[in-house]
Write a structure and sequence with these properties.
- By secondary structure, the chain is an alpha/beta fold.
- 40% of the residues lie in helices and 14% in strands.
- The chain contains 15 helices and 17 strands.
- It has helices spanning 13-27, 39-46, 50-62, 101-111, 131-145, 159-170, 186-198, 213-221, 239-248, 270-282, 340-350, 356-367, 370-396, 422-430, 462-474, and strands at residues 66-69, 73-76, 96-97, 117-118, 182-184, 204-209, 225-232, 236-237, 251-256, 287-290, 315-320, 332-335, 402-403, 411-415, 434-435, 437-438, 451-455.
- Helix 5 (131-145) packs across helix 12 (356-367) and helix 6 (159-170) packs parallel to helix 12 (356-367).
- Bound molecules: pyridoxal-5'-phosphate.
- Pyridoxal-5'-phosphate (PLP) binds next to helix 7.
């Protein structure tokens, strides 16, 4: 530390020590989690008494800047966050035609650029890769498959995988017949099929606001309209706003992620989810449940899927292995409820079947128990990464920044001071080899232009921390 005490200044010595630590925090020479010098070490260095340094540390602790850990010393805390959760979006106005495809295309090209710090890519399984365990499963499959290795599987999927998935739902309190499970090419195809089972061009689809841009892209390409329902980062969907939207508009279906949403990471309690299904089924409105993040919860246990509360078969559950194990395998699934016959027809028309070897390897991966083990590790790594990301953003981003506190998943939603434009920041960040996802992608309206989504589902390192520091320097205070 290049610091010194000005004895002639008349300012209390302990005040000067406090100011020094605050300045080191501001300049970044001390980062969240760093250990401060010992009382004796700093007193010798500054030529002040140990009680003076102790008084300074007590004051810094009182201000919430540092914390004492028994037998370890004092550590710099993450700056107290203005995370008072991002503000809830305004209530819905009118259904909107979606026009986001060209922006999505620009962003998609850039966020996958090799060598970039990938804050824009939401592949949380990268934080704890299952590549080796899956490769072992695939080798076992190949040694047995013979000529089957190059064959097409059944339209609705490889039965052993359907069976493994059905078995897993028992833990969520659901009885699922393997024959009810349809294997798809990722969660995206599951949502595409589900949408085409329940709605047609011109229909209004209620979506969360903000919502995953892939859903908006589907709605746009199918010529449907989106009606935004505000999402609260703590409790999930606003039931009051949903009810009033349903009273005003003729909604053909809803696409909601009530377990863990993307980008907010919000989650509804089982009780509220049950009320949601009750409300929709009373009006005969199908619910497409996008559950791709459902297994990446940070709480004690997984919430029950909305489907568990369905009485009329109007809930279509979509999920996938992309977030939990293997985004490149492109394997997802759909529980189509009462729309099974139509879903089969759509699957045949769209892609005939999904890659057999990938399904086979995943069924081995599940049956061996390795999938479950991997999931436990992945959840734990993601939770730690989330804390590191929040600490780092709160240190390097200007005051007025608000950050979500996700209940699961691998992304943070960051609301920047209003003078910022997330799409401009996206372009500036590209110049520093950093990818982010601009907030404009997550809504058909302009509500989230000053927001960005950042992924923490990555292999966290000093380089990543530096990326956050650089990004923070590009944000206008
Ligand atoms: C909320 C959400 N739903 C669906 C998908 C699509 O999943 P998949 O990659 O399996 O097609 C994604 C992917 O990012 C997502 O974030």
């Amino acid at each position: 530390m290049s610091i010194s005490i000005q004895r002639e200044s008349g300012e209390y010595l302990y005040h000067q020590v406090v100011s020094m630590v605050l300045e080191m925090q501001r300049s970044g020479s001390l980062r969240a989690g760093d250990k401060l010098p010992s009382l004796r070490g700093l007193s010798t260095k500054l030529d002040v008494s140990v009680p003076t340094v102790r008084q300074a540390y007590i004051e810094l602790e009182r201000q919430g800047v540092i914390s004492a850990r028994p037998k370890s010393g004092y550590f710099l805390k993450a700056k107290i966050l203005e995370v008072a959760a991002p503000k809830k979006a305004r209530p819905p106005c009118k259904p909107k035609l979606v026009e986001r495809q060209s922006l999505i295309e620009d962003v998609f090209d850039a966020i996958h650029a090799p060598g970039f710090i990938p804050f824009g890519v939401a592949n949380p399984s990268a934080a704890y890769s299952s590549d080796k365990a899956l490769a072992r499963a695939m080798r076992r499959v190949l040694s047995r498959a013979g000529a089957k290795a190059v064959e097409c599987g059944p339209i609705d999927g490889f039965f052993p995988l359907k069976r493994q998935l059905a078995l897993r739902y028992i833990d969520c309190g659901m009885q699922v017949d393997p024959e009810e499970v349809m294997i798809t090419n990722g969660g995206q195809e599951a949502i595409a099929i589900a949408l085409q089972c329940v709605a047609k061009a011109g229909d209004v689809i209620a979506v969360e606001s903000p919502t995953y841009f892939g859903v908006l892209e589907l709605i746009e390409s199918l010529g449907m309209m989106a009606l935004e329902i505000p999402l609260c980062s703590e409790r999930g969907l606003s039931m009051k706003d949903l009810q009033s939207a349903l009273d005003k508009h003729c909604v053909s279906a809803c696409v909601f992620s009530s377990s863990i949403s993307n980008p907010l990471g919000s989650s509804m309690s089982d009780q509220r989810r049950e009320a949601l299904v009750g409300l929709l089924e009373a009006r005969n409105i199908p619910l497409i449940e996008d559950d791709v993040y459902g297994d990446l919860y940070f709480g004690k246990q997984r919430g029950r899927p909305a489907k568990a509360f369905s009485r009329k078969g109007l809930v279509l559950t979509c999920s996938s292995f992309s977030k939990t194990a293997a985004p490149g395998y492109r394997i997802g699934w759909l529980l189509p409820g009462k729309y099974q016959a139509r879903a089969n027809l759509m699957k045949r028309a769209l892609s005939c079947s999904s890659p057999l070897l990938n399904q086979w390897a995943l069924s081995e991966f599940m049956a061996s128990g390795e999938y479950e083990r991997n999931l436990r590790m992945l959840r734990s790594v993601l939770q730690k990464n989330k804390q590191k990301a929040i600490a780092s953003i709160s240190q390097w981003f200007p005051d007025g920044t608000r950050i979500s506190d996700p209940k699961g998943g691998g992304v943070l939603w960051v609301e920047l001071p209003r003078s910022n434009d997330g799409t401009e920041l996206f372009h500036k960040a590209l110049g520093h080899n950093i990818s982010i996802t601009p907030g404009a992608l997550f809504s058909p309206s302009d509500k989230f232009k000053h927001c960005i989504r950042l992924s923490y589902g990555i292999d966290w390192s000093g380089k990543i921390e530096d990326g956050i520091k650089t990004l923070g320097s590009l944000v206008v205070p």
